[in-house]
Each structure stands twice: as structure tokens, then as C-alpha cells.
């Protein structure tokens, strides 16, 4: 039974309408579906919600729940803020720079352009406090092949040592010569 794709990924939001409008304005995501219930279908718990779905491109769907009767949203205090994020692919570094300028023009703080060697990215937060990343691929076929060849060795070494393996240290060298 192979997985075909992710059907949707769901997160919580503070305000469904604000979230739909924000993702439309800044990331060009179309609003494709709304579901609202007074009772949770899976558990039958009485908990009204608004569930909105956004087109994240290429069959990917990003969804949010607004839960007005639940305590205010929080985050995992034991996980650094930079770890949990949603990353979206854009077509080019030029697009990345244009989006960054538009976000900053509206007062949204943006970190980056960060050069990860195989892609460049920017980071910022949506109005719900979710960290977002936009990434533009820059890898060459040789880079992709070299990384593919060491992935299992890196994972196995990490599982044993819990130290960063150096199989792909070339990605972080200041003078990239690959």
C-alpha cells in the first residue's frame, strides 16, 4: 500500500478568516474548502470548529483549525523555535527575494536569504506564530547524487554517536569546491 501523497497537513490558527487572507496575500494560496462542525466527527466531542483548506500547489493542501472554545494556542517550550516549521518551495532565488521584499514592506520580519548550498531560503512567522520557510533549490545534479550516496551512512553514524557526521561537510565549507 504505497502512499500517493500527503492529503493535507493541518495546524491550529487563531482566526480562520485572517489566516486564509494572509496566506492568499503573501503566498498566493487559494482558499479551496471550509468545513465547520459543532461536534468533532472522529471523537463526537462537542467542540465547534472552523476547518479551512488552502491550495499549496502541486496537489499539496495546507489546512487550519480555529477552535474558539479551546485555551489560547501555545507551542512546545522544549523545542527551539527554529525546528518546527513549514517549508514551501518557490521557483527561483529571484522569486524568493521578491517575496522577502514584499513581506518586509508590510513590516513582517524575515530571516535570510540563508544559503544552505543545495537551496537558499528565508524564514518568517505567519499571524498564528507558525514559522514558515520559503526555499529555492540551487543544487546541481552532482550535489544531489553525492548527498544521496551518503545519506544512509550519515543516518547510521548519527544513530550511534548523536554527533553530526562529516560525510557532507562540503556543504558548509566557506569556499565551496564541489
Set out the fold topology.
Blueprint: E1 9-13, H1 16-27, E2 30-39, E3 46-55, E4 61-66, E5 85-90, H2 93-105, E6 111-115, E7 119-125, E8 131-137, H3 141-161
Parallel strand pairs: 1-4, 5-8
Antiparallel strand pairs: 2-3, 3-4, 6-7, 7-8
Write a short abstract of this structure.
The chain has helices at 16-27, 93-105, 141-161, and strands spanning 9-13, 30-39, 46-55, 61-66, 85-90, 111-115, 119-125, 131-137. It has 178 residues and is of the alpha/beta class.
Report on this structure.
The chain is α/β, with parallel strands linked by helices. The chain contains 3 helices and 8 strands, in the order βαββββαβββα. The chain has helices at residues 16-27, 93-105, 141-161, and strands at 9-13, 30-39, 46-55, 61-66, 85-90, 111-115, 119-125, 131-137. The protein has a 4-stranded mixed sheet. A 4-stranded mixed sheet has the order 5-8-7-6, with helices on one face. Strand 2 and strand 3 (46-55) form a beta hairpin. The radius of gyration is 19 Å and the shape is globular. The chain starts with 8 loop residues before the first strand and ends in a 17-residue tail after the last helix. It comes from Ideonella alba. Pfam families: Glyoxalase.
Amino acid at each position: 500500500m504505497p502512499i500517493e501523497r500527503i492529503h493535507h497537513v493541518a495546524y491550529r490558527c487563531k482566526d480562520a478568516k485572517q489566516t486564509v487572507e494572509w496566506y492568499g496575500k503573501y503566498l498566493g494560496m487559494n482558499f479551496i474548502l471550509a468545513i465547520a462542525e459543532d461536534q468533532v466527527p472522529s471523537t463526537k466531542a462537542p467542540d465547534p470548529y472552523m476547518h479551512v483548506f488552502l491550495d499549496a500547489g502541486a496537489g499539496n493542501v495546507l489546512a487550519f483549525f480555529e477552535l474558539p472554545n479551546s485555551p489560547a494556542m501555545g507551542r512546545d517550550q522544549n523545542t527551539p523555535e527554529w525546528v518546527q516549521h513549514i517549508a514551501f518551495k518557490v521557483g527561483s532565488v529571484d522569486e524568493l527575494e521578491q517575496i522577502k521584499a514584499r513581506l518586509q514592506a508590510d513590516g513582517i520580519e524575515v530571516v535570510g536569504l540563508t544559503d544552505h548550498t543545495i537551496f537558499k531560503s528565508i524564514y518568517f512567522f505567519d499571524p498564528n506564530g507558525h514559522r514558515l520557510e520559503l526555499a529555492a533549490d540551487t543544487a546541481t545534479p552532482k550535489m544531489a547524487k553525492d548527498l544521496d550516496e551518503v545519506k544512509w551512512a550519515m543516518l547510521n553514524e548519527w544513530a550511534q554517536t548523536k554527533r553530526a557526521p562529516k560525510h557532507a561537510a562540503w556543504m558548509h565549507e566557506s569556499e565551496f569546491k564541489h
